[in-house]
Amino acid sequence: VSEVMSTDDIEVVSDHVDMLQVGARNMQNFPLLRRLGKVRRPVLLKRSPAATVKEWLLAAEYILAGGNDQVVLCERGIRSYDPELRNTFDIGGMVLAKMLTHLPVIADPSHATGRRDLVPALSCAALAAGADGLIVEVHPQPERALSDGAQSLDLAGFAAMMQNLPVDVC
Predict the structure, then answer these.
(1) DSSP-derived 3-state class of residue 112
(2) Which of 8, 41, 56, 134 is surrounded by the fewest CB atoms within 10 Å?
(3) Is the whole-model pTM more than 0.90?
């Protein structure tokens, strides 16, 4: 999975990845979404931190309308006023999206909070709420990561989280 930020990136990136990502800041980049509708690669559509669930689903419609039915939605948190959190993980919005669409919805608890200590509990909560999958930031040495180190689990932390996630949460 690799992020594309403009229509100019799509062709070259498509030659090298299995899935194209539309990051949160480009969720309403309509020329990009329209062009991704013509691509025969799966698209991961991250929710903007200021977007309603309806706006998120309508952004997906731009891709679907172009003929690409391989869209996966990703909840990665909405704007928060709490200085201890990057965003607020919107489990209710994720559940609502699953109720309103046939598309798979995955959760990104790493970006949702920006804090590695919250990732395991939010991963469990997302799965219990019906998430179709998780994206979790992992780095062998998070303290040396060039970006997102504070939200990245180390390898042992990731292994422990995976071991402790319930197999059947519902």
Answers:
(1) helix
(2) 8
(3) yes
